[in-house]
Amino acid sequence: MAFMRSHLLPQREMTAGEFRAWLRQFDADRDGRISREELQRALQSLHTWFAWWKARAAMKEADVNRNGVIEEEEMGRLIAYANEHLRMKIYEYDSS
């Protein structure tokens, strides 16, 4: 019997911490950074059209140092991209 790893789908509104936790599910090598391929898998889990293209565009926007991964210091830029282009509402702080 094969077991499939299920990913939790995020709500369209969440905190930055919840967004980071959701992305960690796709960090295949567990290095704490998100590659374009990992981001593409995350977007595919949302049934996003053209996930490969959107992942490429997000990397171009967020990967400031052009090392091929989004590190913690660049996560704010990825959050801004998701807010603007992926129809997500990600808050920096908890509203409680």
UniProtKB/TrEMBL annotation:
InterPro entries: Centrin_CML-like, EF-hand-dom_pair, EF_Hand_1_Ca_BS, EF_hand_dom. Residues 14-49, 54-85 form the EF-hand domain. Gene3D superfamilies: EF-hand. The keyword Repeat applies. Keywords: Calcium, Repeat. CDD domains: EFh. It holds the Pfam family EF-hand_5. It comes from the Eukaryota. The keyword Calcium applies. GO terms for molecular function: calcium ion binding. This is EF-hand domain-containing protein. It comes from Musa acuminata subsp. malaccensis.
